[in-house]
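Trying the structure run again after the queue cleared.
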Amino acid sequence: MNASPQHPDRTDDELAALDVPVLLRYGLTAEAGPRRTALFGDGAAAAAVTLDRLHTQPRSVAFLAEVVRAGGVAYAAELPEPLPRPEAARVVRDWLEAATQLAGGAPADEAMARWLGAVATIIELKHLTRARAEQN
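Done. Tokens:
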């Protein structure tokens, strides 16, 4: 079956069950290929579903992406509240800590920032889709 917006390969529940820290560990330092594709594909979608269910605003995740870009993953992992909501902050802290275990340096920091940006975009699209559905 080919993936399309009308017929996704995975449901939100299946995506939410994915192990995002493992995807980060294998995908952040990988060159272009299946591990990086899995991280930026299903991994970003899984993270977006998880954070959306915790009522996270996309701008919070986008801001965190900029913090990671400016200060690095290790710096962001030390923030007392990487996201405003405590439940979301705990989840994201786990992801950041998984990323700090890598010896990827600045390239891994930039990949993490881009990945968080992708997560924020997916959350925003979910919000827009819901708003349009409520209007109809």
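The helical segments are 12-16, 20-27, 34-53, 58-71, 73-77, 86-100, 105-135. Worth checking whether this holds up in the mutant runs.
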